[in-house]
Amino acid sequence: MSISSTSPSQAPGQTAHALRTLYLVRAAFSVVWVGLVFLLANSSPALTAALLLVYPAWDVLATFGDLRAIRGTGETMLPQYVNIVVGSLTTVAVGLALREGIPAVLLVFGVWAVLTGLLQLLLGLQRRRQMGGQWPMILSGGQSVLAGALFVVQAHDPTKGVTNVAAYSAVGAFYFLLAALRLHKAIHSTH
Q1: How many CA atoms lie within 13 A of 101 on its CB side?
Q2: What average pLDDT does the segment 111-137 reach?
Q3: Could you read off the pLDDT of 157-179 as tens digits, one per residue?
Q4: Sign of CA dihedral 126, 26, 118, 182
Q5: Number of domains, the chain
């Protein structure tokens, strides 16, 4: 039995609304972050390093938003808690990798993308059964696993840089936007 201020019939709609808003915020953040990386990558290594630290930290904060959105729904929260731990460790690892150079940062982002992609894939499959509108998150999780593996391979190529991470984030923004639009459609088809 879950303790919630909403009735069980209202919880899925309210959860979908909250997740849609979160997905839109995540997409907007990623678009701004990508723009800043492309703008600053060649001219300001210090600001680019700060952006690389901010990205996994932001993901941790967004995961807390996800937890808040699903509170009281009965949904298992283990994937989000694991994601918070993984994202926090990634933020620290990126800080350490920045001392070694971009190849080390790509390696850290690659491992992180694989782990969070698997979590996102599992969470999307779980939510698909509960409220629908999750196929973009499922695709995004699978794409994240593949991109992470590619980052690990690219970490050994000196011609690869942070713009590869930005391109990955841009694709993630697209998937968050699609998920928000899909949830919007799902919300309005139930009313």
Answers
A1: 8
A2: 82
A3: 877 788 888 998 998 889 888 88
A4: positive
A5: 1
